[in-house]
Design a protein that fits this description.
By secondary structure, the protein is α+β, with helices and mostly antiparallel strands. Helix content is 31%, strand content 29%. The strands form two sheets. Strands 2, 3, 4, 5, 6 and 9 form a six-stranded antiparallel β-sheet that branches. Strands 1-11-10-7-8 form a five-stranded antiparallel β-sheet. Helix 1 runs antiparallel to helix 2.
Amino acid sequence: MRLECGARTDQGKIRSSNEDYFVANPQDKIFLVADGMGGHAAGEIASRMAAEKIEAVVSQGDAGSGMEDLLLMAVLEANASVHEAQKAQAQYRGMGSTLTALAFTDSRYYVVHVGDSRAYLFRNNSLVQLTEDHSLVWPLYKSGMIAKDEISRNPRKNLITRSIGTQPQVDADLQNGSALEGDIFLLCSDGLTDVLSDDDISHILLNGGTNPQHLAELLVDAANLGGGPDNVTVVVAYLAPE
């Protein structure tokens, strides 16, 4: 299998700045999306700090001891960096970021996740959300009290329960699985999923071909056509046949 990727970030139609940040690094097989929060451009600082720390730790680390351990260490270091920065400077007080990262070793994929950005797997023409949103609204969906397409319309939707840097410690979700030829992995900020349903995303992935950059462009364009109420960032990784 050959790993191909594409990515795009856009501030959307309403926001005056872009607090999202992404990494698409096929050489070191690390991909991520971070969605920052905090005033006075602090969100931009937090998302970039978190993303760059994750990329550095994974790229320079030894996955031989276990990719999950390496990713968890990267998240803890990213959390410490952002937390110390927001404590040290008043203008950064309270800043933080979501983080959803994807890494590969041989024939396995690994996902580490904090917040409400998402990771999806499109396999055999079927879309599966790999992550669960760390938000006040997600448990309502899990318990059957609301439908999934109602999440984005709930007034408490943006209240997340975990983030990078807002607390001294953070719990991250970790998972792994077999990576198969033809798999398409999608990482995205909530600027995409607040506008597009899973069916919308699946339709684009099903009909947009397999060029990951083209798919990323299509998804971001669709979010902006739907109103673009928030920053939107998409990273697509495709396991192409040799």
